[in-house]
Amino acid sequence: MLALWPTFMYAAEPLPAWNDGPAKSAIVSFVEAVTKEGSDDFVPAAERIAVFDNDGTLWSEQPAYFQILFAFDEFKRLAPQHPEWKNDPTLKALLEGDKKTFAASGENGLLKVVGVTHTGISTEQFQANARAWLASAKHPKTQKPYTEMVFQPMLELLAYLRANGFKTYIVSGGEVAFMRAFAEAVYRVPPEQVIGTTFVSQFHDNEGQPAILRTPKLAHNNDGPGKPESIDAIIGRRPVLAFGNSDGDLQMLQWTAAGKGKRFMGLVHHTDAAREFAYDHPSPIGQLDKALTQATANKWTVVDMSKEWRRVYPFDKE
Amino acid sequence: MLALWPTFMYAAEPLPAWNDGPAKSAIVSFVEAVTKEGSDDFVPAAERIAVFDNDGTLWSEQPAYFQILFAFDEFKRLAPQHPEWKNDPTLKALLEGDKKTFAASGENGLLKVVGVTHTGISTEQFQANARAWLASAKHPKTQKPYTEMVFQPMLELLAYLRANGFKTYIVSGGEVAFMRAFAEAVYRVPPEQVIGTTFVSQFHDNEGQPAILRTPKLAHNNDGPGKPESIDAIIGRRPVLAFGNSDGDLQMLQWTAAGKGKRFMGLVHHTDAAREFAYDHPSPIGQLDKALTQATANKWTVVDMSKEWRRVYPFDKE
Predict the structure, then answer these.
(1) Predicted model pTM
(2) Cβ of B238 under 8 Å from any chain A Cβ?
(3) Could you give the number of structural domains in chain A?
(4) What is the ipTM for the molecules in this complex?
């Protein structure tokens, strides 16, 4: 029995939700090369750092980043407790359904809504809020919980990498405590392997009941160049594999690619209007333009979702 | 043969450099309690986060933080390449051996020396500098390399915790890239488990040769309240064990202690002038005053180095 076990394990085909196409083949070749002891491409387990963007790479990001949808729902839920929000013209417009005025405030208005719903409370309280929303909210198109709108092929890729000794990290523009509210349960990525945008937090002694309070001041914007910067600051090691889907991932891919030895750079290309969404550029969410040009020029792996993925979501039929 | 192996492993007494005193007993009891499945105190492996201060907790910190000694040596080494340093009165005084003027500049002068030696270069270049220094510099009292002035009992404690499923982190006021230059080789703590003070870094595209440049702007001062703040931001989970040696570790210990369930809070008390150093308060380096009072009041473990440690450094005779 024991002698049969390794054979059986090996026989289980990895990445079943991927079609036998160029992306799957590139992934498997890469992993086999860097894990083969004695080969020129071998990478010791301690250095097998894999980084993944989240929005649009591990789960969907349309019609808007799910965290933004959370912020709007939270804004509605919390408004009765915050009469002072009416003193701000932008927030007042949103409260009164004046979409035109609110839309005119642009990114500034969005940041205000994120600010008032995400800060001024402890990390623990914020994560309880995020979990309550994730447990009840439904996506406007699929009517599924957001945590089910994760990509089955990417879940399999994360598991396949971990089975091959990789440490899988999320490196996303999303706020870090929001992602940690579901990353461990959904992606099997523990909180300490989630890197994101951060607000300045402050420790308060509270006479023996210490708390860490989230302030509205941005500490780190984890997008674009902010991604390799946080990788260097927090991981302290250059990844050997990076996966993204938009121009916000370009610098992370460049930083990974510029390391010595074999590296894998991947992009999810949203080409599947029927099963997910189809967009690249121009797109207000997840714009993929410069990174696509560089991927083609440098022979990075571009995953054509409509062709390479046998299933998109876990709830899709086999 | 195989049947004997586990017995043999188990029989190896943990923590041989610790005397059979209250500290060793408290550590072993804690670890046995939180790792015993089914017990009320059981902590799942994923939540076994242990955090350690570095200076004065894992290695010595007298007559000054070793990183400060590195900064002064680097200042001397690099000065010929930086004629512009003479334009700064404080740096000029140091260059010309005018100790009185330099000393009068206080902490500001120290920060200037750290700034000019630690920033303006890439992380990789900085770590190469740190490694070169660590490979050649000798401690003024012992004449040993600094990386040998680590505490044998703490090396054993780190290994003992890891063998029991803990993830061991360094959470120190030292600059993070400096600590990463030796933490993996000396403590077996990988770069991604080293948290420290950080400078703002900037990603530069460099026309296809991307680099991350260290700027002199402080990003995070990882001392005092900065420790639980970075634990929350980077680890995202409250530790179950924390070890420090000074008032700069107080908030980290408080934050750990305030968690639910069994926790371990420890302080190294430097009581050993013969084998290491003896100091607590007042002390310009590693002041231990408020944290000692709170440790006594809250029954945290205070390690009396002279009594509890059979050996201090790995090079001490058995």
Answers:
(1) 0.94
(2) no
(3) 2
(4) 0.94
